[in-house]
Write a structure and sequence with these properties.
60s Ribosomal Protein L30, Chain: A; MmgE_PrpD; lyase activity; 2 domains; 2-methylcitrate dehydratase PrpD; alpha+beta; two-stranded antiparallel ribbon
Length: 483
């Protein structure tokens, strides 16, 4: 017989402790270097949104969602003068940030934090302005730090990447709570309301990893987390009650349900070293437009061939073997079939390897229809085997993004290279490198004036008295990078 107390939040619990931390965290509690890193993370999220805002699948999403839900007070990045409701805004802007596999990730608790936090808080900025409420840049930045800290902690409580092995899309699983936390902080909710928001958000958690093969919905699943966490906070603000002690509840609790049939959850990770060990610096910025688990393969090939095409690749290559760990293999080691979709190509180790051998470097254009299904790509992919090396599963968690590449040539020679931690992980991208990524990837998509305005607004965000100026800076028309 189940006998859980009706007022579960009266007793001390990890959920309650986390809620109190979210409520009490102040600007001065956050070290300056963490605030600075958060600004650059936000800039990277905006970069990703600009790149993907007018890709074909993004345009389809905008047309469908706006036609279903109708008009509202909130902007959509790159769609000048289009306004939708706050929930639709969060969903669409998140779909853009996740729209081209360029966005951030956490190595041990895989989720894409920017695609969760940035859309939810931008929606609240527009929604607040509609109601006559303005928010400062400090409010904006502090809410993001809260979300950046909460999301990976929820993931670590579920053993991080292990949930990918079981077929869940880990980011939308971990991300609902992160969005609820960030949105609640931005709205100034108290700890009881924050607990309600967690309870409302976590019961909506979702995300199947089979979406990675051909489905457009892979681009939108972090948007479910952003939207649903925002919805949860707005409901809690209106005194709607959520599940109490939602994380550690024995029957039907978030951590217990998502760990069924696997290792028991590590509930302590939710609140471990809060305000002492900051997780925000562990969020990695991607240098390449593909799944993070393929980045070590890219680095290994770049080092072997110095970012230059392999001459007569189809004639001189006999066999390529790429060895990776189990989570990377399940996520990116699958056998591709014709024709490849963009989402499939960005998740497939063999495709990325074939591109680099033939073209020297991986660029945004490699995912255009013209280049993606070239006959020579498919011919070379037949010579590429991606295998699961079980020994890699026993390495320290920090080293499991390893890729060992072996290339056998028709003349009998062999080249090998192993990369343990890829670019952006072994050495995090610096602020200057993130700015360079912004400039490089948005060049030609927006004007130089718009670039300068966005950069200045984001990098000086803490001095803003009304952060809606960032919304205004993003209310511009943007081009499709694949055209």
């Amino acid at each position: 017989m189940i006998t859980e107390p009706e007022t579960a939040s009266d007793a001390p619990s990890p959920t309650v402790e986390l809620c109190k931390w979210v409520e009490s965290l102040t600007w001065d509690d956050v070290p300056e270097e963490i605030r600075t890193r958060a600004k650059y993370l936000i800039l990277d999220g905006i970069t990703c949104a600009i790149v993907a805002s007018h890709l074909p699948w993004s345009e389809t999403a905008v047309k469908a969602v706006s036609s279903i839900e109708g008009e509202g007070p909130c902007h959509v990045i790159g769609w000048k003068d289009l306004k939708v409701g706050p929930l639709q805004s969060a969903l669409l802007n998140s779909t853009f940030i996740q729209g081209f596999e360029l966005d951030d990730y956490h190595s041990f608790a895989p989720l894409h934090s920017n695609s969760i936090m940035v859309p939810a808080i931008l929606a609240l900025v527009s929604y607040g302005k509609h109601k006559g409420i303005s928010y400062s840049g400090k409010d904006f930045l502090l809410a993001h730090v809260v979300g950046f800290e909460v999301g990976p902690r929820v993931g670590l409580a579920l053993h991080g990447g292990e949930i990918l092995n079981r077929g869940w899309h880990s980011g939308p699983v971990f991300g609902h709570a992160a969005s609820a936390a960030a949105s609640s902080k931005f709205l100034g909710l108290n700890s009881e309301q924050i607990e309600d928001a967690f309870g409302i958000a976590c019961t909506q958690t979702c995300g199947l990893m089979s979406a990675q093969f051909e489905s457009s919905v892979k681009r939108m699943q972090h948007g479910f987390a952003s939207r649903n966490g925002l919805f949860a906070a707005l409901m809690a603000e209106q005194s709607y009650k959520g599940i109490k002690r939602v994380f550690e509840r024995e029957y039907g609790g978030f951590l217990n349900v998502f760990s069924l049939g696997a290792e028991p959850p590590v509930v302590e990770e939710l609140t471990k070293d809060l305000s002492e060990k900051w997780i925000t610096p562990e969020i990695n910025i991607k240098p390449y437009a593909c799944m993070a688990g393929i980045h070590s393969t890219i680095d290994a090939l770049y080092e072997l061939f110095d970012k230059k095409p392999l001459q007569n690749a189809m004639d001189v290559v006999k066999q390529v073997t790429i060895e990776i760990s189990e989570p990377l293999f399940k996520h990116g080691g699958w056998k591709a079939t014709k024709p490849l979709t963009v989402i499939g190509a960005q998740m497939n180790n063999a495709y990325i390897c074939a591109v680099i051998l033939l073209d020297g470097v991986l660029t945004v254009k490699n995912f255009s229809e013209k280049l993606m299904n070239r006959p020579e790509i498919w011919e070379l992919m037949e010579k590429i085997d991606v295998v699961h090396n079980k020994e890699f599963d026993t390495l320290p968690r920090t080293d499991r993004m390893i890729a060992a590449v072996k290339i056998e040539f028709t003349d009998g020679t062999i080249k090998t290279n192993t990369v343990v931690r890829p670019s952006g992980v072994k050495a995090p991208l610096s602020g200057d490198e993130i700015v360079d990524k912004f400039r490089t990837h948005t060049k030609g998509l927006i004007s130089d004036e718009a670039q300068a305005n966005i950069l200045k607004t984001v990098l000086e965000i803490e001095s803003s008295k009304d952060v809606s100026e960032l919304v205004d800076a993003l209310n511009i028309d943007i081009l499709d990078p694949l055209k």
